[in-house]
Amino acid sequence: MPEPHLTAFRVYYEDTDFSGFVYHAGHLRFFERGRTEFLRAAGVTQSALHSGGPGVLFVVSRIEIDYLRPAGMDDLLTIATRVTEARGPMVRMAQEMSREATVLSRAAVTIIAVRDGRPVRLPAEVREAMERLAEG
Fold first, then answer.
1. Taking a C-beta distance cutoff of 8 angstroms, is the pair 11, 71 a contact?
2. pLDDT tens digits, 29-63
3. Which of 17, 74, 75, 116 is catalytic?
4. What's the domain range around 31?
């Protein structure tokens, strides 16, 4: 299994709710950051794909999250992101959010490449960049 890409960040006051923990929707934002940094590490920027390149956007078509433990203010978190499948317009990714060795949540995410609101094959350069990153 390929090594995941890791993105680290800290939980700020603005990321928490009245309980002092990250609100469940905050996990969505954190996982999005992990996917964006995964692409950036692969040499792919979404703004270039859309405006200066083939006009492709990524949309989430499915996400399933298991919440295991809370994340709190000042926690240093790591998002681990890896591709589990890529074919046609679809990319499936597995993500984990951890604090040190403790997994706080897991996500299974399906994204679709679209142009003008319609699914399109993942551009070859994006697929190749993802494969290079997965191979290390």
1. yes
2. 999 999 999 999 888 887 777 776 678 889 999 99
3. 17
4. 5-135
